[in-house]
TrEMBL record:
Additional remark text: The thiolation reaction likely consists of two steps: a first activation step by ATP to form an adenylated intermediate of the target base of tRNA, and a second nucleophilic substitution step of the sulfur (S) atom supplied by the hydrosulfide attached to the Fe-S cluster.
Domain tRNA(Ile)-lysidine/2-thiocytidine synthase N-terminal: 45-211
Organism: Massilia aerilata
Subunit structure: Homodimer.
Name the record gives this protein: tRNA-cytidine(32) 2-sulfurtransferase
PANTHER family reported in the protein's UniProt record: AMINOTRAN_5 DOMAIN-CONTAINING PROTEIN, SULFURTRANSFERASE-RELATED
Pathway terms, separated by semicolons: tRNA modification
UniProt family annotation: Belongs to the TtcA family.
Length: 301
């Protein structure tokens, strides 16, 4: 019996160590993103959008930790939009936030009925739902005196958006870590920009967050985003490091090697006789390229 208890104690000790390591990693990654993009400044009042999902819970939890350590003072206000979805457990978030001791606001707006009335059965609800949410949350931010809005989008969300825009919108466009909102009045920040979804999933388990499922978008299995997510997870499994490289490429852009005439002055480009390491290497393969299988080498004439 003592041997069994000893094994159990060691396992519990190891699990506690891993949990603490995860917490430290999340704090480090969020802190780095905040620093890299100057997301939070002294005197900020930040509206943390809390959906009841794992990512927004993790966002609030980590920001509360960093607030205690930060060299600048800032306020946090948790805000949830109760969209009046059927069977939505309205008591869960207030009880959790009361226990946490963080200021919060629950905004009650029946956007669920609007979306269900206007979107045909089986069609994607995300576009209309997000527009309605956005307008409401902008208004709430103004009413609460918040100058910044923090969203729980993580690294995988950013990558998925990048591929969605490329595959279905014909644009090289992602989801920025920081940007002024489309109404020009609010600064939107994404402190989880460097955090992997797998880590927020694990963190939610460790912390025991009271997850609330979404009955609108969460119930639609054939969304394009879910297909992209499956593609990325398959890549990560079969080709470790590929997804990380793609994410790194979003912050290492070379406009002269793309084809956007507004970003780079191709039309007025002239030779100047000065060597440029970023110039076109013309007949060479790109350093990252590899020969295709079955390639027939050129033979001398």
């Amino acid at each position: 019996m003592s041997a069994v208890l000893e094994v159990a104690d060691k396992q519990a000790e190891k699990q506690a160590y891993e949990n603490n390591k995860l917490h430290k990693r999340l704090c480090r990654q969020v802190g780095q993103a905040i620093g890299d993009f100057n997301m939070i400044e002294d005197g900020d009042k930040i509206m943390v959008c809390l959906s009841g999902g794992k990512d927004s819970y993790a966002l609030l939890d980590i920001l509360m930790t960093l607030r205690e350590r930060a060299p600048v003072k800032f306020e946090l206000v948790a805000v949830n939009l109760d969209q009046k979805q059927p069977n939505f457990p309205a008591e869960v978030l207030p009880a959790y936030l009361d226990k946490l001791g963080v200021p919060y606001h629950i905004e009650n707006q029946d956007t669920y009925s609007i979306v269900k009335r206007l979107i045909p059965e089986g069609k994607t609800t995300c576009s209309l739902c997000s527009r309605l949410r956005r307008g409401i949350l902008y208004r709430v931010a103004d009413e609460l005196g918040c100058n910044k809005i923090a969203l729980g989008h993580h690294r995988d969300d950013i990558l998925e958006t990048f591929f969605l825009n490329m595959f279905f919108g014909a644009k090289i466009k992602g989801m920025p870590a920081k940007l002024v909102s489309d109404d020009g009045k609010h600064m939107v920040i994404r402190p989880l920009a460097y955090v992997k979804e797998a880590d927020t999933e694990r963190y939610a388990e460790v912390k025991g967050f009271p997850i609330i499922p979404c009955d609108l978008c969460g119930s639609q299995e054939n969304l394009q985003r879910k297909q992209i997510k499956a593609m990325l997870r398959d890549w990560e499994k079969k080709h470790p490091g590929r997804v990380e490289n793609i994410f790194s490429s979003l912050s290492t852009v070379v406009p002269s090697h793309l084809m956007d005439r507004d970003m780079f002055g191709f039309v007025d480009l002239k030779t100047d006789g000065i060597a440029n390491p970023n110039g076109d290497i013309a007949f060479d393969e790109e350093p990252c390229s590899t020969p295709s299988a079955g390639t027939i080498p050129l033979q001398p004439v």
